[in-house]
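Handout for the seminar on molecular recognition.
Each group receives one record of this type.
Step one: identify the two inputs.
Step two: read the structure output and locate the region that could contact hexanoyl-coenzyme A.
Step three: write two sentences on what you found, then compare them with the reference statements printed after the record.
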Amino acid sequence: MEEEIKRLKVKLDSAMLGGGEDKIAKQHQKGKLSARERINLLLDEKSFEEIGGLVTHRTKDFGMEDQKFYGDGVITGYGTIDGRLIYIFAQDFTVFGGSLSETHAEKICKIMDLAMKTGAPIIGLNDSGGARIQEGVRSLGGYADIFYRNVQASGVIPQISAIMGPCAGGAVYSPAITDFTIMVEGSSYMFVTGPNVVATVTNEQVSAEQLGGASAHSTKSGVTHLTAQNDLDCILKIKKLLSYLPQNCEEKTIVMPYEIEEEYREELANILPDASNKPYDMKEIIYGITDRDTFMEVHEKYADNIIVGFARLAGRSIGIIANQPFSLAGVLDVDCSKKASRFVRTCDCFNIPMLVLVDVPGFLPGTDQEWNGIILNGAKLLYAFSEATVPRISVIIRKAYGGAYDVMNSKHIGADFNFAWPTAEIAVMGAKGASEIIFKKEIAQSHDPIVKLKEKENEYAALFANPYSAADRGFIDEIIVPKDTRRKLIKAFSALEHKVVNSPRKKHGNIPL
Ligand code: HXC
């Protein structure tokens, strides 16, 4: 990473100035790059072609006629990243605080239309004070024109929003509709209403950073998928993210060169603790299965009882959804259901096969969960998996209990291959809870209820706390040993490469949002 940053810094020399040297110097003092510098760093050398560089605003009010800057606060165009075509806009904070005028919006819409017509990803580098105050409703209309296009492009081309400065008011809704949001720590923030309005309306005293900084949105709201330490880090993350995505929904992801070799991974045999109620880090299993150093986690700090992210398996891009026993024992709750269902749909619309690693004790009980809609949110995940037509493989590592067994990409909801490790436990509920219910009378009538409960618990566990009855019914296709998991998955995904599903004709489904 250090080397890459050094290499990219050299490119800064060729960066052109935007709204004036003083203002760019001010950006630099805040640790921010200028819009043109950002584009130059992100795109392949000399690949950027600017469109609309001579556009200026049309406002006559408030003395604006005398204040015109070429480009009107946004640089738009196209170029390549690692040789692949992309369209890009970068808001220029040095021109009216990057605020969005009618013409500024028209420029963004123009390249969004081109990206759609040509089936190429669109990247927005946001750094803006919001609607151009001098333009009133014309700028509000401009935002709506962008939102409309974001929605039309959703699921057609990848849309990535980097938040590299302020992003306030309705301006937040374009990034929120796009597929990925990346926020720069310390210099970016997103909120619908800023700290002053918050103080007036709710009497809360809060700073911009606390209210809508990268930390708030990566841990509390889940609005941002990724955070970056600075502008350069943000640019590297955009590049990496793009490498896992196809150009559009009709294409597959790029395949990195890979020669199949001896694919056993001995380390996978030593990750699970002896006791099945002890936690472990599911990421160790992800690292063990995937190509070395390819796992890119998304939403890392939000709802960390489920892990989602991209990786490569024998050079091919896959999406991973995995319960995390390290956090809340990997239980499904409201937030993690929302997080995972969004990711499942992202993978599905961009032809990215999914690997699901299961170790889930069930849904989280309680009034907090019920009143916050665990029913609707759990249903989202169930819906998202059931609807997905990309290759889908599950490996049950340990627990798969109750409704969560069904939800986590079970055979019944359309998974293509379902594997289990010998340590898998697949049942309606844990042995203790189950025995307390179904042997209630027998236990109560016994002369030693504690011993009886233990005896019944063991009986139940022997019968159900294993993968064999599921395999007997064909719900599990094969029980595999940990060290062989990677080899099995490479073969299984390869067998699914040309999967085709013809879903019933409909306008669109009605996911319980
Ligand atoms: C016009 C703006 C502007 C805006 C900033 N500027 N925001 N010009 N319209 N929305 C100009 C400033 O006048 C200043 O011009 C320059 O940009 C830099 O701004 P500063 O305030 O000096 O910078 P800074 O201190 O870094 O503060 C940045 C800021 C602040 C936090 C973004 O400027 C700010 O609060 N702006 C207003 C934010 C806002 O309320 N926007 C409207 C949101 S509502 P000079 O000439 O002095 O350099 C909205 C509705 C959208 O967006 C609805 C869509 C559905």
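Reference statements: The chain has 20 helices and 16 strands. Residues 22 and 94 are 9 Å apart (CA to CA).
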